[in-house]
Amino acid sequence: MSKANKAALNLKQFMLRQEVLKLYRDIFRTIRQVPDANSRKDLQMWARQDFRSNQQQKDEVAVKMLLQYGRRSLTELKTSLDLSGVCKEKHFKEK
To answer: Where does the record place the Complex 1 LYR protein domain (predicted)?
Structure first.
């Protein structure tokens, strides 16, 4: 699909989209720290599937709820990595 065919996003939609993209990048950065290759691949597949299955979601409230779910999942993953001693970050930045 070309850029000309896409509908222009209003400011709220644009900002939400940026939050989703940031969460996606943060999740994959964190997944890279998982030491086991099989677990890492499983987590990558899970994350991609979740994002793809909700890619067409347009409802602002639903997107915000999905962002909340994603952030919570990311926090749980970071906590698990931290407790297992493989996480490189000492302190996680939280909003």
So the answer is: 18-75
